[in-house]
Amino acid sequence: MNPFTAITANSYALIIWLAYLALSSWIMITRRSASLTMTPQRLRTEHALLGALLLAHAPLAFAPIAMTPAHFGAREALSLLTWLAVLIYWTAAYLIRLEGLQAILLPVATLSLGAALLLPTGHATPWLAKPLMQVHFAIAMLSYGFFAVAAGLATLMRLADRALHHPGRSLLQQLPPLLALEKLLFSTLSLGLALLTATLTTGAIFAEELFGRALSFNHKTIFSLAAWLVFATLLWGRHARGWRGRTAINWTLAGFGLLLLAYIGSRFVLDGLVNN
């Protein structure tokens, strides 16, 4: 049963978007202020506020797939992907210095949720009630989440590289060292690729049982395989050829773009333009 009516769901989505906008604006403004130093207490406050926002966002992210039948499309995918990416960052920030990523991730999350507000509600997906599909779906969304964080890290690396030539930019002064970001990027890509491999494998194995036909090479499959090939090539290049820096950044962003086209892009066309 849907815990939200259409009106309350849209209102709640708007409130969550405004909360992300407020938090990201506050962080951006304070990070630009040279008079404010990033004390451990301040970082803990930011982290606590982000954790509270994640809790508030969770019902919006999971309500559509808790419906009977579940509804899922580009709008719901953007919301759930944003929640997962922010959750991965929020969890990792307990162990690794990542405060610089927050100034990138939150504005992007705000833009993603703003875009989701402009899209129609997704189509009915009764196959999400099947346990096999739930396994496949969970692995796929986790993969998207890790690659979203990797894309954020790649963007942060580009900013860190520019900061080396523009040391006066106060917003970039809190960025982690470039080598640390690069190491974290490849660790994140390795996890994401393992999950994407599992996604493609389970999709191929479960396709006939779930849909009554063998895996078809549609646009979603082709873009997903292309993204897998980009990320696998990048990781091979890292170990075999020592690829790093701008090469890693460009390949990461290209691969993530292909992943977005694989599902969110296709659902945007079907839900938003074709209204399938």
From TrEMBL:
Does Cell division appear among the keywords?
no
Q: What is the lineage of its organism?
A: Bacteria, Pseudomonadati, Pseudomonadota, Betaproteobacteria, Neisseriales
The biological processes this protein is annotated with in GO are:
cytochrome complex assembly
In its keyword annotation, does this UniProt entry include Membrane?
yes
Which positions, given as ranges, span the membrane?
12-29, 49-72, 78-96, 103-123, 135-156, 184-207, 219-236, 248-270
GO terms, molecular function: heme binding
- Residue ranges constituting the Cytochrome c assembly protein domain according to the UniProt record: 76-273
Record's protein name:
ABC-type uncharacterized transport system, permease component
User: Signal sequence span per UniProt?
Assistant: none
Which UniProt key words apply to this protein? Membrane, Transmembrane, Transmembrane helix
Q: Which InterPro entries match?
A: Cyt_c_assembly, YpjD/HemX
